[in-house]
Design a protein that fits this description.
By secondary structure, the chain is of the alpha/beta class. The chain has three domains: 108 residues, Cobalt-precorrin-4 Transmethylase, domain 1; 84 residues, Rossmann fold; 84 residues, Cobalt-precorrin-4 Transmethylase, domain 1, CATH 3.40.1010.20. The protein is built from eleven helices and twelve strands. Strands 10-9-11-1-12 form a five-stranded parallel sheet, sandwiched between helices. The radius of gyration is 21 Å and the shape is flat. It binds iron/sulfur cluster. The site of iron/sulfur cluster has 15 residues, from helix 1, helix 4 and helix 8. Iron/sulfur cluster binds next to helix 1, helix 4 and helix 8.
Length: 317
Amino acid sequence: MTAVSEPVKRVLLAKPRGYCAGVDRAVVAVEKALELYGPPVYVRKEIVHNRHVVESLRERGVIFVEETSEVPEGELVVFSAHGVSPAVRAEAEERNLRTIDATCPLVTKVHKEVNRFAREDYDILLIGHEGHEEVEGTAGEAPTHVRLVDTAEDAAKVEVRDPSKVVWLSQTTLSVDETMERVDQLKGRFPNLADPPSDDICYATSNRQTAVKAMAPECDLVLVVGSKNSSNSQRLVEVAKQAGARDAHLIDFAREVDEKWLEGVTTVGVTSGASVPDVLVMDLLAWLSERGWGDVQEVTTANEKIAFALPRELRSV
Ligand code: SF4
C-alpha cells in the first residue's frame, strides 16, 4: 500500500507589511511628547487606527478625545496621522492649546493639492470613504470645492459646475484597483477630468497591496492583522480575496483567529496593515506554529526605506 503524504502546511509572509513611515512618526511623536512633557498628553482621535497601539499609549497616560473642545484650555494636543481641517486648527488656537501636528506628510501633500486646485477654482472630486477622518480633514481644506465620491453610485451622480475644470484626488489608503475603476467611471462622464500631479494613494498602501496580490493565489486563507477601522487593512482583505485567496479575515490579535477557518487549509498567507506593530504579526506566527504551520516563507515584493522627520514642534526640543 502506498502511503498518502500529508500536504505540507506553510505560511507565506508578505513583505512589506506593517508600520509605514507615517505611522511610525506619529507614534514616536506621542511617545516623545510623553517623555518631554509627562502625562497627560491629549490626542485628537486615534493617533493611528490600531487597537493595540491606542491601548498601550492610553496605559502610558495619553487621553484620546474626539474633538479639541474636550481638551482643557492651555493643554497639549497631538493631531493624528490622518490630518485635520483648518477649522480644527483654528479651534485649537482659539482655545490656546499647544499642538503637535503628527499628520503624515503624504496626507499633507493631498491637503496642499486641494488648496492649489481650489485656488484655481477647480471642482475637486475626492475619492474616499465617507466619514473617514482623513477625508474629513482633506475635504475641510476647501469644502465648497470638494465633492466626495465614495461609491460607484456617487460617481454616477456627482455634479460639477464646469466639466472642463475638474480634477480627481484621493484618500491615501484606498484599493489601487478600485480607485482606478472609479476614475474610469468618472472619466466616462467628464472626459476632461484632470489627474492628480502625483499618486495620492501612498507608497505604503500600494506596496502592501502588491505583496498580498503576489501571495494570495497560493493561499487557502489570508490573515490580515489590523483593526476594523483601519482603511488600508480592510483593503488588504478585499485585495487578497480578489487576487485568488480562498478566504481572508481581518484580526486585531492572534486570539481572534477562529480555528474553523483553518479546516482543510494548507497555505496561510499573513500580512498586516500600515498601522500594525510587527510584534502582533510575530504573535500570530507563534500561534500558527503551535498548530502545525511552522514553516514560514517570506514573499518580498519591495524593500521600503522611507522615513520621515519628526513633527516640527518636536525637532527643536
Ligand atoms: S498609510 Fe500612507 S498616508 Fe497613511 S500614515 Fe502611512 S505612509 Fe502616511
